[in-house]
């Protein structure tokens, strides 16, 4: 027989659960009036009124405009107070640094970017990133920081927020990325691989698909795996690191120290290496002329040259795409995604790159796995890593950790990052 204290605890648990659900229904737009909340949840009108009043008192919800009348008295809508907190995003790439500020609905409010070599190490990188963010914050009203999202161009142990043996990030192995941001902003910090941020952005803003793979062919190569609507990171955060999958028959030395890695054969730095060697051997054309005029060889330049019909650039881009397509085919057979998004500097060659990838994927994948498969180019928007970082933080705040801290009115480092 249940004791009085047990029954009281159960009642409190039900109250908390229903309160959380009411807030999230309004936050996601699934139900925005009291009658809608009652219909969706099955809660009585009095209970809904009580929960809404509690959510308003805690600062999560506010009354908004009246909904259109359906014949009776118009119901007042509710809105989630997305302006009450800020999400800070640091998207650190191999050669670029982007910072941004978003509200709790994921809407970008301000942003900045600069060229930066991640190989300069964690101390200099974080000093520069924080200085850029301080400039943005000076332009904003003083609103509490609720979360910080950081993207890094290498493998990340998501639980600890530490990079693990990142090939292009000397000095970063095991570095406590979280600590510096936690101390500066007194807010929970989530650190993830940069390609996962791009997958988050695609899921939220372009393809509402539960099974999606984002493949980035930049300086290196990586993949963000979205399975059943959630990012698949694997046991230690290494999932999707296809750049170091072995290419059969290749003995090219990779930056990681191994031989035959995919990025050493088909990545952006491999394109630059092979283009430089070909030009040194006397190759001519648009790409050669641009280099003679003083342009620096880069994956972006090679992609543009391919689009302009340069024979050398086309051959390099097609070779990269075929090799990458073979690796993607293995992912298609294993994960059976509905959408594959190809992004990054090399993929900027557009349809020239996509056509080769599609051909290899359809040749090497099972027909059932490709029956409804879309292979598309990213929208190549510089804001996408920032939007993805905001989505990462929103997911962790409201889908994962919300029950731990909602009674406090805002998240703290301890409440959000300590397992319940």
Automatic annotation (TrEMBL):
SUPFAM superfamilies: Actin-like ATPase domain, Winged helix' DNA-binding domain. Belongs to the ROK (NagC/XylR) family. This is Transcriptional regulator. InterPro entries: ATPase_NBD, ROK, ROK_cs, WH-like_DNA-bd_sf, WH_DNA-bd_sf.
């Amino acid at each position: 027989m249940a004791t009085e204290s047990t029954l009281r605890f159960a009642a409190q648990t039900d109250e908390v659960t229903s309160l959380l659900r009411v807030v999230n229904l309004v936050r996601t737009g699934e139900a925005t009036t009291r009658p809608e909340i009652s219909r969706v949840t099955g809660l009585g009108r009095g209970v809904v009124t009580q929960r809404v009043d509690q959510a308003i008192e805690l600062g999560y919800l506010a009354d908004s405009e009246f909904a259109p009348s359906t014949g009776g008295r118009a119901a007042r809508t509710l809105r989630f107070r997305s302006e009450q907190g800020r999400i800070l995003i640091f998207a650190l790439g191999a050669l670029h640094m982007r910072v941004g500020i978003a509200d709790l609905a994921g809407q970008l409010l301000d942003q900045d970017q600069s060229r930066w070599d991640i190989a300069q190490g964690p101390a200099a990188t974080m000093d520069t990133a924080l200085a850029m963010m301080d400039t943005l914050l000076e332009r904003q009203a003083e609103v509490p920081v609720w979360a910080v999202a950081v993207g890094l161009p290498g493998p990340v142990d998501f639980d600890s927020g530490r990079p693990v043996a990142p090939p292009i990030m000397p000095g970063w192995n095991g570095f406590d990325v979280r600590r510096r941001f936690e101390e500066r902003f007194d807010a929970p910090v989530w650190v993830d691989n940069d390609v996962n941020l791009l997958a988050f952005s695609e899921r939220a803003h372009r393809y509402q698909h539960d099974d999606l793979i984002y493949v980035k062919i930049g300086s290196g190569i990586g993949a963000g795996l979205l399975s059943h609507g959630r990012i698949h990171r694997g046991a230690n955060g290494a999932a999707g690191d296809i750049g170091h999958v072995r290419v059969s028959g290749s003995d090219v030395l990779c930056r990681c120290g191994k031989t035959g890695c995919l990025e050493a054969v088909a990545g952006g730095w491999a394109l630059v290496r092979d283009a430089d060697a070909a030009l040194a051997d006397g190759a001519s054309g648009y790409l050669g002329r641009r280099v003679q005029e003083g342009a620096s060889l880069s994956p972006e330049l090679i992609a543009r040259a391919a689009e302009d019909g340069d024979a050398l650039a086309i051959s390099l881009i097609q070779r990269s795409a075929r090799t990458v397509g073979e690796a993607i085919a293995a992912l298609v057979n294993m994960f059976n995604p509905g959408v594959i998004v190809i992004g990054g500097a090399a993929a900027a060659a557009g349809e020239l790159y996509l056509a080769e990838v599609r051909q290899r994927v359809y040749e090497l994948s099972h027909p059932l796995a490709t029956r409804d498969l879309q292979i598309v180019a990213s929208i190549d928007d510089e804001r996408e890593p920032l939007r993805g970082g905001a989505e990462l933080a929103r997911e962790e705040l409201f889908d994962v950790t919300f029950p731990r801290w909602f009674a406090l009115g805002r998240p703290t480092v301890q409440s959000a990052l300590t397992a319940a």
